[in-house]
Automatic annotation (TrEMBL):
<protein>
    <submittedName>
        <fullName>CYLD hydrolase</fullName>
    </submittedName>
</protein>
<keyword id="KW-0493">Microtubule</keyword>
<feature type="domain" description="Peptidase C19 ubiquitin carboxyl-terminal hydrolase">
    <location>
        <begin position="24"/>
        <end position="203"/>
    </location>
</feature>
<dbReference type="GO" id="GO:0004843">
    <property type="term" value="F:cysteine-type deubiquitinase activity"/>
</dbReference>
<keyword id="KW-0378">Hydrolase</keyword>
<dbReference type="InterPro" id="IPR038765">
    <property type="entry name" value="Papain-like_cys_pep_sf"/>
</dbReference>
<dbReference type="GO" id="GO:0005819">
    <property type="term" value="C:spindle"/>
</dbReference>
<dbReference type="GO" id="GO:0016579">
    <property type="term" value="P:protein deubiquitination"/>
</dbReference>
<keyword id="KW-0963">Cytoplasm</keyword>
<dbReference type="InterPro" id="IPR018200">
    <property type="entry name" value="USP_CS"/>
</dbReference>
<dbReference type="Pfam" id="PF00443">
    <property type="entry name" value="UCH"/>
</dbReference>
<dbReference type="InterPro" id="IPR001394">
    <property type="entry name" value="Peptidase_C19_UCH"/>
</dbReference>
<dbReference type="GO" id="GO:0005874">
    <property type="term" value="C:microtubule"/>
</dbReference>
Length: 225
């Protein structure tokens, strides 16, 4: 029997289903890192729905079923996921990842994504990055940058561009999915009080060997500052 599926929420439907009290993913026992990641990945986009259905080579079908049937489908159908469903997933991740703290401790979202995508589902890395002569593969990109006084309320476009520039990074190819982790500095200090979501992201200047226009004449550029 084919597993049940619900499309991601869009436009007015997303507002109607997700807005109000008792909506979203219920938090419990330091689950905020996982709740936010799961909501971002699945509530309003289908780009990673392959995680829910495809039989990847290393795929753990039990974890895949919990993710699809207990978290993503209820989120898209009713706009609400119980904490017990996320705890069920966390318990499975604890068993598969040999890390007992997945059920009670706060983790880095990247640690969660690496575990579920690489070790449990066996998905190929989503990003290929190059710095100098070194090429690396990863599942998400963490924004690292120094405090910049001219950025008070930045948008995601500005943060990604400046982070790539300061780290001397380029995208080797256009990614099928670009998961970006915002800068954060713990409970006591945060670099930005607010970050404006960029509804579209222009990665032209982030691509390796991509033709770009000259900022002076508008023709194809031959040099990059």
């Amino acid at each position: 029997e084919d597993p049940e599926s619900f499309p991601p929420l869009r436009n007015e439907t997303a507002v109607r289903v997700l807005q109000g009290r008792m909506k979203g993913i219920q938090g419990h026992c330091n689950s905020c890192y996982m709740d936010a990641a799961l909501f971002s990945l699945f509530s309003c986009t289908s780009v990673l729905d392959s995680m829910l259905f495809m039989p990847f080579p290393l795929c753990d079908r039990n974890v895949q079923g919990i993710l699809r049937d207990e978290i993503v489908n209820p989120l898209r159908r009713t706009g609400f996921v119980r904490a017990s469903s996320v705890m069920h997933l966390r318990e499975q991740l604890t068993d598969k990842g040999q890390c007992s703290s997945f059920t009670n401790a706060e983790k880095d979202p990247e640690e969660f994504l690496n575990l579920i995508m690489q070790q449990i589902l066996g998905i190929e890395p989503l990003l290929k990055l190059q710095s100098g002569d070194q090429e690396q593969e990863c599942y998400c990109y963490q924004i690292f940058m120094d405090k910049q006084e001219d950025l008070v309320v930045p948008d995601v476009q500005q943060l990604v561009e400046r982070s790539f520039l300061s780290s001397d990074l380029k995208l080797v190819e256009i990614p099928s999915c670009f998961i970006i982790q915002m800068p954060r500095f713990g409970k006591e200090y945060k670099m930005f009080s607010k970050i404006i979501p960029s509804l579209e992201l222009d990665i032209t200047d982030l691509l390796l060997d991509s033709p770009r226009e000259c900022c002076l004449c508008g023709d194809v550029a031959t040099l990059e500052c």
